[in-house]
Amino acid sequence: MGRVVVIGAGVGGLAAAARLAALGHEVTVYERSGVVGGKLGRYVRETPVGTFRFDTGPSLLTLPQVFADLFEATGSKLDEYVDLTPLDPIVRHFFPPTTGSGLPPTTDPSLQPTTDPSLQPTTDSGLPPIGGDAAAGRAVPGTVLDSCADPDVFAARIAERFGVEAAADWRRLWRRAERIWTASWRDVLRRPVDSARDLARLSWRLGDLAAIAPGGTLRGLGRRYLREPRLRMLLDRYATYTGADPRRAPAALAAIPYAELAFGGWYPRGGLGTLADALLSRCLDLGVVVATGSTVTGIDAAGGRVHGVRLAGAVAPVPADVVVANTDALTLYRDLLPTPDRLAGLTERSLAGFVLLLGVRGDSGLAHHNVFFPTDYDAEFDAVFGDPGRGVPARPVADPTVFVSVPDDPLVRPAGHEAWFVLVNAPRQARTLGGVDWRRPGLADAYADRVLAVLAERGVDVRDRLVFRELRTPADLVGTAGAPGGAIHGSVGGLLRPANRGPARGLFLVGGSTHPGGGLPMVALSAQIVAGEIGPP
């Protein structure tokens, strides 16, 4: 039986621990915080009107089959632990009446939102009406588009909103995205990629290379296929799933909307945090020891092979034959096992997030997941990332995209109330040009006021209906999840992320900062790759 130590009880760490225990290893997980789940965090607020429960990380689950495979591989079934509900709409997009920098407005009448009364939404379409009662918090400036997991229905919704030519454009992009997804799923996402040479050696077909366009950007892909600016904006948003700027993110990220819209978005009853509970239960059932409140301070790897880990306050190291690090790759190679040559490319961090957790009275009429776009999307990325090379500092976004999750789930809010998770993209925590010092007195509260004002400007004003508000800044994510700078997705990179196999024999990496990337299914796939590399004892 091999002795395995897993550093970190995030989704990647727990998934790896369960798989390795099922293979016959003796597995111990050390987690520095008092709870498991990592960035899949939770917050509970007791109030006179009742209990509010919030997910403070992801707001929906995609590719649930990845987790179903995980539970089946460890001798169980996902639906024994988690009650999944499909979402329709997956996301409700609220677009501004006009668009700004980098997204020129169209002049083609066929690409304009329809005003023909016969084409306005019906109860069968699933679309909310354009316009509304601002006093009731339901106003919708601009145009609304609901995404769903049926490509024909979604194309019909696009045609209704933007015209038949826009829908045809989307179908052409969709075919390209399907090719990217197929190649990525077959050759990249479920196998180890340790270097650029490995990536080049994959069994790419010429058609796959043409589809993936290794030198292209997601923004460039949108410009090539989509004439409707708001559809370009929708596509650009998926770059933020990896913490990147769409103007620099690889075109291959078109696989993300394909996966979401082809396989659907899902919500676990009781919140996304129930997935962490399920993984913990599965680990304990398999005999994994999970030690919370235990901080790993270093990895012993004399002679190029791991021998164990050092714990804060412990006299002697904990021996191990294998160490699986579910920490940010930057933390691993900077602090736990200093490896200067592995730090190259890890210093450019992904975007972070500024979060409001709101207890709201009444019914806002919103979908589970809503995105309120700004007029000038490029200005948001200019602010979040800044340009340190030219002396331009990063800064909070004045007119941000606002993501609002409102689960229709009585388990997470009192009757007659809603539990809102509000997120805006934000610069990381840093006292340099590339970040913002979110600990500065008064900054977080002032910015929260601004975000609520932006929502009001976009037709959803809940300021007079708040039971409470709780804030989370990038600085908080540094403390709760050990994310350097509060960067949600680790470093910003292209197709190649830090390898799952470390520089010492017996050292492996899982989680969103390593291959194949961020997001719940990708993190679970990293655990699958690592378990396959380690194998049975």
UniProtKB/TrEMBL annotation:
Question: SUPFAM superfamilies attached here?
Answer: FAD/NAD(P)-binding domain
Highest taxon above the source species: Bacteria
Using the UniProt annotation, give all residue ranges assigned to the region (Disordered).
Answer: 95-134
Compositional bias of kind Low complexity? 96-110
* Xref: Pfam families: Amino_oxidase
Compositional bias (Polar residues): 111-125
In what residue span(s) does the Amine oxidase domain sit? 12-337
Q: Where is the signal peptide?
A: none
Q: Which InterPro entries match?
A: Amino_oxidase, FAD/NAD-bd_sf
Which PANTHER family would you find in this protein's record? Answer: PHYTOENE DESATURASE
Q: What is the name of this protein?
A: Phytoene desaturase
The organism's lineage? Bacteria, Bacillati, Actinomycetota, Actinomycetes, Micromonosporales
